[in-house]
């Protein structure tokens, strides 16, 4: 799924969904984020407390969403899992956006060897799906959230930098940049004060969509038991745990995290596409 | 000047079965969703067999839509009133099969920009024969033979059959377009500004070719243009359109020598002319009316130097000139323009 | 001929990128903290002989670059080293498992191509309610990671309904197809959504072009207009997603094969990553990258056939 970032033709061209769907998705993003922030207060139980006697119990007044195969409360695990599941993609998006914008801006503004090095390395990273790069690094570093986040940031960076580069190139041609140069403003000043605010909406829209992809990749890795430590609740890990329960005819503890993963990714995609569409229509 | 009954009210006078017109548009009114007034409002227009008729107007006046109506090629969601008869049959009520036959064998259109009109991924030969072979009105070898013949008629050779549109010039493509239009041996050609996208020397060649072929094949021609001089040069009769209505119509020579509608007069005055060196060009002030605004009176009233109170209130009916029934103008003040010089 | 030069240039570019990729795959090992030998053994009891064997195999006493060249030379000869976990040649492990994975990927590819194109086509041509339904469906599909699809499909069709086996790859070709049906669908779902959306939007764009109106005005039957002028013209864009589709399929086999306990290369990658069997991880990574690039090369070479403007040089080859 990482690879989707390579060339995502058409996605932005699709008319973004109408306002009602957009608003629902925006609300869902807000809801999940709030839940993640307040998880420790909201969670009714310790997400790691095992109660084998109560394993695979159906939803009840005590356990609203039921319990998993090890008797852990699904609602508490979902809430605290939201924290890990959103924190990882956030890290990926922040890292890749900051570094990607810096690199793309430098390449777009300076051109020359920097630009050709960038385009060569972009080609190389395109050949590596983000998840493969992450697996490679996890194989070296072992457990921990940092390694996959860094790996995915590196894998997503070229997409951001390439976008930034093309935007900067377009922006440079506009007369106001020349005017500032004539007035003796430094390149850095012009970039930060004038170009950056102009291209930010497009980059942020793309980064919002990237958030969904990073979430899918990281959840996939934690489904495999790679990256995120075993005791940290995480949606991907919950799907893996729930798979055992499914074999025993108790699908509920797997379905919940699946639903949340899909809805969160869809919500981020819809919001990001809507923004991208909005920006595209504003600046022809 | 031409055949065809000259009656006061053509709306119901012509019996469709006995109509000798190749194209006969009567009371055509087309409305599009989201507009306050019809895009076309009561168009009456006819093209006789073998006749060349020019349809003149600025962009947005509805001339392209009028010509496309002959193929029932209308924008989605359009509501249509009136009749568009080709060879006596109403195009607007045809079913899919009849329409396909009409488009393949009876009416053909030459489009403005040949570069956009041909699929860049398909060979020219494929383009030429696709309509007649896919509708099974001609076998593939027959179609290829005819395509070769027509390519020669437009001054190209058979090697063009195997080329892609990207490999030939715009002028050559427009020749291909003309050849393609003649593939089904149509009774009527529609040419929608066929020279606008071409450079000046090529324009003249294409026009000459079109005139020659029209005579050779005996097809009627509806020539859509914004170029008055060109219209005068090639056509028997001219219709001048403004804001979805026919402002004036009549034999080409008469209409240009003695315009009876202030819009025609203004158009003529705004055209640069070599033989009138000292003349200052009179641009027409203002803009054509917006489609989003309703209009009750004469659509040209806001820009018309002759406009009076009645013009704002009541849309003028087309009236013919006292001496010439074929020369009609929709204006309350046709008499005030009689014999007046072109410079308004 | 310009096409030949174009092909040679693409081939050279691909070789260069592949070289770069091999360097990344090789160099990653040296990011590990500590001595490479102990990393390669990673906590396993290291007898002096084993240590010596590792050192000899990886030429650990040589300078870094010499080691890389040795390693690269071995790989070019088809020697991917020895698996530390399985104590056997990696190439043998791969030979055992690659057919299953390739079959799975091929099945998914067929499903993606057929259903993705069909949905995109129908949505673009029919519009209205069908279009909205496809849009909603594909929006959900592109939000569904393959492991989620795998677990849900398994729960419904294998465990609850019992229509399909829930794990394993089966014996014999027919049985294998049977076992791989659900995994292939799980693998395909996300890409069906993506391909359908790409197809839909490029077809809508093509539908807007003047030459489509011209074809209609000439009486070409609507079905043929869509096939010859709309679908045909969107084929180039659709084809450029080919490399992306194959690489996504390959990398997602790690999730789907794990979910369905299929003994393919994907599962091997998962196992070797958790057991830090680095030579195996390296080999599989390189194979995935190489396959991705091979598919991209094929796509690039096919594009001039689909779009004559590229072969004629009337349009740039950048995609």
From TrEMBL, chain A:
Keywords: Cell membrane, Membrane, Transmembrane, Transmembrane helix, Transport. It is a multi-pass membrane protein. Gene3D superfamilies: MetI-like. InterPro entries: BP-dependent_transpt_permease, MetI-like, MetI-like_sf. CDD domains: TM_PBP2 (cd06261). One of its GO terms (cellular component) is plasma membrane. GO terms for molecular function: dipeptide transmembrane transporter activity. Coiled coil: none annotated. It is found in: Cell membrane. The chain crosses the membrane at residues 21-43, 86-109, 121-139, 145-164, 211-232, 252-272. PANTHER family: D,D-DIPEPTIDE TRANSPORT SYSTEM PERMEASE PROTEIN DDPC-RELATED, OLIGOPEPTIDE TRANSPORT SYSTEM PERMEASE PROTEIN APPC. This is ABC transporter permease.
Automatic annotation (TrEMBL), chain C:
Residues 98-299 form the ABC transmembrane type-1 domain. Keywords: Cell membrane, Membrane, Transmembrane, Transmembrane helix, Transport. Gene3D superfamilies: MetI-like. It is a multi-pass membrane protein. One of its GO terms (cellular component) is plasma membrane. The chain crosses the membrane at residues 12-32, 102-122, 134-157, 177-196, 237-263, 283-306. PROSITE patterns: ABC_TM1. It is found in: Cell membrane. It comes from the Bacteria. One of its GO terms (biological process) is transmembrane transport. The keyword 4Fe-4S does not apply. Pfam families: BPD_transp_1, BPD_transp_1_N. InterPro entries: BPD_transp_1_N (IPR045621), MetI-like (IPR000515), MetI-like_sf (IPR035906). Belongs to the binding-protein-dependent transport system permease family. This is ABC transporter permease. It comes from Streptomyces antnestii.
């Amino acid at each position: 799924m990482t690879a989707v970032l390579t060339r995502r033709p058409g996605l932005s061209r699709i008319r973004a969904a109408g306002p009602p769907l957009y608003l629902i998705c925006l609300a869902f993003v807000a809801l999940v984020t709030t839940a993640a922030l307040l998880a420790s207060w909201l969670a009714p139980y310790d997400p790691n407390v095992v109660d084998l006697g109560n394993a695979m119990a159906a939803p009840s007044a005590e356990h609203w969403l039921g319990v998993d195969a090890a008797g852990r409360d699904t609602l508490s695990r979902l809430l605290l899992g939201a924290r890990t599941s959103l924190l990882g993609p956030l890290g990926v998006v922040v890292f890749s956006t900051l570094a990607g914008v810096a690199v793309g801006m430098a390449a777009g503004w300076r051109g020359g060897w920097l630009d050709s090095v960038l385009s060569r390395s972009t080609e190389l990273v395109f050949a590596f799906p983000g998840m493969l790069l992450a697996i490679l690094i996890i194989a070296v570093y072992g457990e921990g959230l940092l390694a996959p986040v860094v790996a995915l940031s590196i894998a997503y960076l070229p997409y951001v930098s390439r976008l930034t580069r093309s935007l900067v190139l377009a922006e440079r041609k506009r007369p106001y940049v020349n005017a500032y140069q004539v007035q003796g403003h430094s390149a850095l000043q012009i970039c930060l004060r004038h170009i950056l605010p102009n291209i930010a909406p497009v980059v942020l829209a793309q980064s919002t969509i990237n958030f969904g992809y990073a979430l899918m990749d990281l959840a996939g890795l934690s489904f495999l038991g790679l990256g995120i430590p075993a005791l940290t609740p995480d949606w991907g890990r919950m799907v893996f745990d729930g798979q055992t329960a499914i074999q025993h005819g108790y699908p509920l503890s797997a379905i919940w995290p699946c639903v949340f993963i899909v809805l969160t990714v869809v919500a981020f995609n819809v919001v990001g596409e809507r923004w991208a569409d909005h920006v595209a229509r504003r600046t022809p | 000047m031409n055949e065809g009954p000259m009656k006061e009210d053509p709306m119901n006078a012509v019996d469709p079965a006995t109509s000798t017109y190749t194209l006969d548009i009567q009371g055509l009114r087309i409305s599009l969703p989201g507009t306050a007034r019809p895009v076309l409002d009561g168009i009456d227009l006819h093209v006789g067999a073998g006749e060349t008729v020019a349809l003149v107007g600025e962009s947005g006046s509805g001339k392209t839509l009028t010509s496309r109506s002959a193929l029932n090629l209308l924008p989605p969601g359009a509501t249509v009133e009136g009749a568009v008869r080709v060879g006596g049959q109403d195009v607007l009520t045809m079913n899919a099969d009849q329409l396909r036959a009409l488009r393949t064998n009876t009416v053909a259109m030459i489009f403005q920009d040949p570069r956009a009109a041909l699929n860049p991924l398909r060979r020219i030969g494929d383009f030429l024969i696709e309509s007649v072979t896919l509708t099974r009105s001609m076998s593939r070898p027959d179609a290829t033979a005819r395509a070769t013949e027509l390519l020669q008629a437009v001054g190209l050779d058979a090697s063009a059959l195997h080329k892609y549109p990207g490999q030939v010039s715009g002028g050559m493509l427009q020749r291909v377009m003309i050849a393609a239009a003649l593939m089904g041996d149509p009774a009527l050609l529609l040419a929608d500004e066929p020279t606008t996208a071409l450079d000046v020397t090529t324009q003249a060649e294409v026009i000459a070719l079109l005139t020659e072929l029209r005579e050779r094949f005996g097809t009627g021609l509806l020539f859509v243009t914004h170029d008055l001089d060109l219209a005068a040069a090639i056509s028997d009769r001219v219709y001048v359109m403004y804001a979805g209505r026919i402002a004036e119509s009549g034999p080409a020579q008469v209409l240009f020598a003695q315009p009876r509608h202030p819009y025609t007069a203004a158009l003529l005055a705004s055209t640069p002319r070599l033989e009138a060196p000292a003349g200052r060009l009179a641009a027409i002030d203002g803009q054509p009316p917006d489609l989003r605004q309703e209009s009750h009176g004469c659509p040209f009233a806001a820009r018309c130097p002759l406009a009076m109170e009645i013009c704002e209130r009541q849309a003028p009916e087309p009236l013919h000139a006292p001496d010439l029934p074929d020369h009609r103008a929709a204006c309350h003040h046709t008499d005030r323009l009689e014999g007046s010089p072109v410079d308004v | 001929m310009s096409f030949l030069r174009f092909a040679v240039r693409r081939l050279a570019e691909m070789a260069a990128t592949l070289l770069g990729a091999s360097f990344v795959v090789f160099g990653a090992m040296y990011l590990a903290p500590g001595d490479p030998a102990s990393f390669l053994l990673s906590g396993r009891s290291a007898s002096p002989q084993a240590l010596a064997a590792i050192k000899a195999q990886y030429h650990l006493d040589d300078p870094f670059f010499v080691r890389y060249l040795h390693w690269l030379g071995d790989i070019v000869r088809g020697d991917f080293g020895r698996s530390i976990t399985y104590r056997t040649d990696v190439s043998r492990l791969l030979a055992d498992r690659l057919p299953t994975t390739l079959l799975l990927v091929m099945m998914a590819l067929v499903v993606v191509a057929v259903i993705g194109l069909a949905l995109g086509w129908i949505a673009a041509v029919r519009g209205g309610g069908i279009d909205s339904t496809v849009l909603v469906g594909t929006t959900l599909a592109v939000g569904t990671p393959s492991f989620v699809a795998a677990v849900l499909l398994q729960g419904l069709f294998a465990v609850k309904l019992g229509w399909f086996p829930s794990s394993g790859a089966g014996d014999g070709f027919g049985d294998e197809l049977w076992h791989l049906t659900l995994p292939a669908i799980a693998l395909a779902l996300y890409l069906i959504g993506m391909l359908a959306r790409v197809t839909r939007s490029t077809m809508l764009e093509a539908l807007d072009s003047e030459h489509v109106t011209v074809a209609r005005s000439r009486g070409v039957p609507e079905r043929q207009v869509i096939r010859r002028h709309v679908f045909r013209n969107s084929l180039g864009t659709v084809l450029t997603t080919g490399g992306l589709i194959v690489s996504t399929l390959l990398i997602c086999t790690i999730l789907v094969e794990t979910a369905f306990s299929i003994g393919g290369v994907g599962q091997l990658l998962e196992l070797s990553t958790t057991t830090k069997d680095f030579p195996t991880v390296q080999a599989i990574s390189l194979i995935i990258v190489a396959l991705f690039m091979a598919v991209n090369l094929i796509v690039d070479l096919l594009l001039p056939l689909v779009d004559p403007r590229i072969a004629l040089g009337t349009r740039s080859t950048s995609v």
